[in-house]
Amino acid sequence: MSGAVARIGRYVSLYPERVINQTIVELGEATNTGQATIIRFCRLLGFHGFRDIKLALVDDIATERNFVSGQAKANADLGIERLNSSLQLSIQKTAELVDAADMATLARAISATPRAVVFGGGVSQICASLLEYRLLRLGVPVFCVTDSRLAYIAAQKLPANGMAFAVSLSGITADTLDFMKAAQEAGAKTVAITAREKGPLADIADHVLPFHLPGPWPMEGSIRYIAPFVVVVEALAQALDDEMLERRGI
């Protein structure tokens, strides 16, 4: 690297803990560079953008803090230690992202809906099924659709006070976006559960339930992000259970 890009690289190497708490504007001011240069730096390293490199730095810092100095570890043990550290951090960060007021508002809408549909592609299908199971156990009339075409049709048929839940790690999957748009055109309320708080899916959803990745992008094929996803679902389930108890006057 050279010039302004190298300046960013040196700063990130020297002050990683500072960078994870900075905005892209603040990093630009600290390195005397523009936002476009910072994005170029991130992409040179294989990341989509500034948020993704911050997530990678968080994972690296957590791993270093858990490293036991002076003790030799077998490769398998070190791998488990890294996994344990990243999962614990992602669960903690996800819990910090939970907005109690938003959960309560969403719980009221869910408790009044006559029908809800859940959709997710890839590994997100597993998460979508978990959400369906949790809501069904609470008495919500919900069903999970795994076929993208059927999901689109199901979204089109939702009533005006129906609800559509889209689960997507990346928040940019075309089929998931189509599902959400169809639900909105039908007049239903939409909920995005995603690791990308600022993205196409989050931008069009009525409600966004974010979770923190246990490691850097990309995570194709990994099921690690199911752990922080469960935190979001359980927080929603608790809010919904509280809402139902209040309605019954308990």
List the helices and strands and how they pair.
Elements: H1 3-14, H2 16-19, H3 24-31, H4 35-44, H5 50-65, H6 75-97, H7 100-112, E1 116-120, H8 124-137, E2 142-145, H9 148-156, E3 163-168, H10 174-185, E4 189-194, H11 200-204, E5 207-210, H12 226-247
Parallel strand pairs: 1-2, 1-3, 3-4, 4-5
Helix pairs in contact: 1-3, 1-4, 6-12, 7-12, 8-12, 9-10
General description of the model:
Residues 68-72 have low confidence and may be disordered. With 250 residues, the chain is of the alpha/beta class. The chain folds into two domains: 1-45; 96-247, Glucose-6-phosphate isomerase like protein, domain 1 (Rossmann fold, 3-Layer(aba) Sandwich). Helix 1 (3-14) packs across helix 3 and helix 9 packs parallel to helix 10 (174-185). The radius of gyration is 20 Å and the shape is elongated. 59% of the residues lie in helices and 10% in strands.
Features:
about 250 residues; Rossmann fold; 2 domains; 5 strands; elongated
Output the CATH homologous superfamily of the largest domain. Answer: Glucose-6-phosphate isomerase like protein, domain 1
Q: In what range is the share of β-strand residues?
A: 5-15%
Major sheet: order of its strands? 2-1-3-4-5
**SSE class:** alpha/beta
CATH architecture of the largest domain: 3-Layer(aba) Sandwich
Helix content: 55-70%
Q: Which class of the largest domain in CATH terms?
A: Alpha Beta
The CATH topology annotation of the largest domain reads as Rossmann fold
List the helices and strands in order. HHHHHHHEHEHEHEHEH
Question: Unreliable segments (pLDDT under 50, ≥5 consecutive)?
Answer: 68-72
Task: Give the termini distance in whole angstroms.
Answer: 63 Å
Which value, in Å, is the CA radius of gyration?
20 Å
Number of helices: 12
Principal-axis shape: elongated
Average of pLDDT: 88
Structure summary, number of beta strands? 5
- What composes the largest sheet? 5 strands, parallel
**How many discrete domains?**
2
